[in-house]
Structures are given as C-alpha cells and as structure tokens.
UniProtKB/TrEMBL annotation:
This is Transposase. Pfam families: DUF4096. It comes from the Bacteria. InterPro entries: IS402-like_dom. Residues 1-27 are annotated as: Disordered.
Amino acid sequence: MTNNQWASTEPLLPAARVGPEGGRRDKHPRRRIVDAIFYVVRTGCAWRQLPRDFALWQTVY
C-alpha cells in the first residue's frame, strides 16, 4: 500500500480504545495488519501461510 493510499484509508479505521474505557495499545502497526490482509487476498494463501514479515496469522485474522 502506498503512502497516499494509506493516508486515505487510515481515517476509515476505528480508533484504538486506550484508557479508562478499556483496551490497550496496538501491538502491531495497523498499516502492517492491513498490508497482511491485502497479501492474503491478493495471493490466495491460507492465513497460516502468512509470511513472518507480518504479524502472527491469528492477529491478522
């Protein structure tokens, strides 16, 4: 995903809930998660075959 594409996509994602309402900080950058989802869609690979360059497949799934 290019920087321009990410700039237009990022505002569409819900904000992380950190603070007294619950939740915790993101462990992985959201851009890497979105890139991993696009990788699975583009290649047709199984979630478990996601390359180690991305977050764990359970996180991305």
